[in-house]
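Reopening this ticket.

The earlier resolution said the output was attached, but the attachment link was broken on my side. Pasting everything inline this time so it's all in one place.
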Amino acid sequence: MIRGSCLCGGVKFEISRTRGPFELCHCNRCRKVSGSAYRAGFLVQAEDFHLTDGKELMKTFEAPIVEAPPAYHQCFCGRCGCPLPNPTQSGSWYVPAGLLDDDPKIRPDKHIYVEFKAPWDAITDQLPQMTKQQIRAHRARASAP
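Inline output:
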């Protein structure tokens, strides 16, 4: 079992299995949410994610739609302000990796939205780097019958 929590410990969760993807997102919104060069996070299937404490502390901020739905939303702890796992439209959960107390046994597999990276940031690892256009093409291929 992989455990995680917010900064104050009021919101706690467990993950029974991780599959990914585990992405490092450089888009403007994710950089602002993380307060850093990118946001490290991964997807967890709904059946593998278990909120164990603090549901009443979970708040959501929904940013205006920039291009097309769905809107960008961010869950956070109402007590400490820490980013929290977000439910997705597909029923999975996006989990910020920095919240984990245990090793998720998966590692980042790519950088995304690299054309929006902070000008002071340098990507120095060997992970694949995907632009917005490449991500859209990849998702279109994945959803094709």
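Reporter confirms the inline version is readable. Helices lie at 28-34, 132-143. Residues 25 and 39 are 5 Å apart (CA to CA).
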